[in-house]
Amino acid sequence: MMKFSFDDKQIKRIKGHASEITKRLDMKVKFEGNELIIDGKPFEEWIGKDVITALSLGFESFESFGLIDETKLFKMVNLEDYVESKSLKRIKSRIIGKNGKAKKNIEEMTEVKICIYENTIGVIGDIENVNLAFDAIMKIVSGSTHSAVYQSIQRRIRSMKEKV
């Protein structure tokens, strides 16, 4: 059994998928205020944790439930763990970019999906691609320029292709 706490908006989003969670992950789902309790076999709970967290961050259901596929990975970071509170807005703006361009570029270059909810960033995709996108996001957080990050992504993609 696992227990999670979410805000009202997140709970509402998860409740909309409760029956799908129950069916696809073969587990019981119970809501108590802003808490969610799941009960199932350990492996289903482990996957369920990622599916539910992805849904809570705003990922589409097909992306979230895609995590049932063992080739998919979900990774997230809370920016508050890496950035002073006075810099959070600026760093989030850098990750998103003007009109969402930086986020979109990273998503397209690495073939992942990125969602940002408050100070948390989530990434879903194939394992190598998620790690590549996550590294790119963390480079932006640490102050790298967008162009340097994009060049780094391109180099790593070329390197990965050469290994195949």
Q: What is the CATH H-level superfamily of the largest domain?
A: K Homology domain, type 1
Enumerate how many helices there are, as a single number: 8
| Strands in their spatial order, largest beta sheet | 1-3-2
Question: What's the average pLDDT?
Answer: 94
Shape: globular
> What characterizes the major β-sheet?
3 strands, antiparallel
Could you list the spans in which at least 5 consecutive residues all have pLDDT below 50? none
**Radius of gyration, whole Å:** 17 Å
Query: What string gives the helices and strands in order?
Result: EHHEEHHEHHEEHH
Total individual domains:
2
Task: Measure the end-to-end span.
Answer: 41 Å
- CATH architecture call of the largest domain: 2-Layer Sandwich
CATH class of the largest domain: Alpha Beta
* Strand-residue proportion: 15-25%
Give the total of beta strands.
6
CATH topology heading of the largest domain: Ribosomal Protein S8, Chain: A, domain 1
Helix content: 40-55%
Structural class: alpha+beta
